[in-house]
Design a protein that fits this description.
single chain; alpha/beta; Rossmann fold; 5-stranded mixed β-barrel; 4-stranded parallel sheet; 17 strands; about 30% helix; binds hypoxanthine; EC 2.4.2.1; glycosyltransferase; transferase
Length: about 400
């Protein structure tokens, strides 16, 4: 996977004050990928050290008042062209910088105050369709013993749980809010495993409960609240789905967005609201663009066929009628399933970063789909699914 990285984050002394901002998590990511270092200000030939620059209106001014708008634009243009030639799909850019800032930049008063916006280079790079994040995102998604990656596995995907080197097991019955009556299908255990996969700290939940079994939205999302309590900041949801014909094929998929067609919401129930600051949750980028880009990069590097698309969550448990399949297609849905959407809402309400992976086990609306046929198809893709998840964990 090819990643563009601000040179100062890799320890190069290219900042305006002659310093660097070496960031361990970014250096680690760069060491595990093909990294291309950029500094648009160096590319522009600006002196270093020099007074700080900030964006003021449409211009970039040094603290001395000198107008460096043209130099910043030239540096941005030449670096963006190099990045496009290099073929990066991800850019990790220095936060707040007037060149590289993503989301927030200095406000033009040279006082350290920030305003929503992007640096000149980030503005230019956005046109290349590259996922842009700051070092803060890479750091926030970095797993540790204090912040393991939560992995919730759906129908037929539970085998991944056997890869965990266990440290502790937690019976779902001991999880706050998990219904006391819930039992797994025969041959399965409702038991979370805390441990590591290839050395990466994880908590794996090898099965879930569903609305269609009569549980409430708060109950089906109790595992997510539990993961958050354990300190998990990243959460991977894996689910079996139907592929909407004309939109996606049977096989693996990365979820890009969702439509909640269940008519339920954990944030509309008292037990779902308990740990949440506000129920009015921003659902833009609910599936982390950073994690999606990593997953895409891993799939391409490993030669695993993976599509991408929007997930529609339905109540179930019956499969879709032809009219429903047509409606889902018209809505731009690629994958339809009976889980995940409420869990994603809960995870976002708790500020967690979400990766959604699916195994489309059948075509939505196909005759003679059964739970057993879903499991059989899941088995066929289990190895690729495991390689994909392990590859993502390695890069985090
Ligand atoms: N529809 C809904 N959920 C599913 C399907 C489907 O076709 N296959 C597996 N889960």
């Amino acid at each position: 996977m090819r990643v563009c990285v601000s040179a100062c984050l890799l320890g190069e002394p290219v900042r305006y004050d002659g310093g660097a901002k070496p960031t361990g998590e970014v250096m680690e990511l760069a060491s595990k990928t093909e990294a291309f270092r950029v500094c648009p200000e160096r590319a522009a030939g600006l002196p270093c050290p020099r007074p700080p620059a900030e964006r003021v209106g449409g211009r970039v001014l040094l603290a001395t008042g000198e107008d460096v708008t043209g130099a910043f634009a030239r540096g941005a243009e030449s670096c963006a062209a190099s990045v496009a030639r290099f073929g990066a799909t991800l850019a990790v850019l220095k936060a707040k910088s007037p060149s590289c800032g993503v989301g927030l930049v200095y406000d033009g008063t040279y006082s350290g105050r920030l305003v929503p916006g992007r640096g000149v280079f980030a503005d230019r790079l956005a046109r290349e369709g590259i996922c842009m994040v700051t070092e803060d995102t890479v750091r926030a998604c970095k797993p540790s013993v204090e912040h393991p990656v939560a992995i919730v596995l759906g129908s037929g995907l539970g085998h991944l749980g056997t890869l965990v080197r266990p440290v502790r097991r937690i019976d779902y019955q001991d999880i706050d809010g998990f219904p006391a009556t819930a039992r797994p299908v025969p041959g399965h255990r409702f038991e979370a495993t805390v441990g590591t996969i290839d050395g990466v700290p994880v908590v794996v939940y090898p099965g879930r409960i569903h609305l269609y079994q009569g549980y409430s939205a708060a109950e089906v999302t109790s595992l997510v609240r539990h993961a958050h309590h354990l300190g998990c900041r990243d959460i991977v949801f894996a689910c079996a789905t139907g592929a909407v014909p004309g939109q996606a094929h049977v096989g693996l998929g990365i979820l890009t967005d969702q439509i909640n067609l269940t008519g339920r919401n954990p944030l509309a129930e008292w037990d779902g609201l308990r740990d949440v600051d506000s129920p009015f949750v921003d659902m833009n980028d609910a599936y982390s663009p950073y994690l999606r880009t990593i997953a895409r990069g891993v799939a391409d590097d490993l030669g695993i066929a993976v599509e991408e698309g929007v997930y529609a969550g339905v109540l179930g448990p019956c499969f879709e009628t032809p009219a429903e399949v047509a409606a889902l297609r018209a809505l731009g849905v690629s994958y339809v399933g009976m889980s995940t959407v409420l869990e994603v809402i809960m995870a976002r309400a708790l500020g967690m970063s979400v990766l959604g992976l699916t195994l489309a086990a059948n075509e939505s609306g196909a005759p003679s789909v059964s739970h057993d046929s879903v499991l059989a198809t899941a088995g066929e893709y289990a190895e690729d699914f495991e390689r994909l998840v392990r590859g993502v964990l390695r890069l985090l």
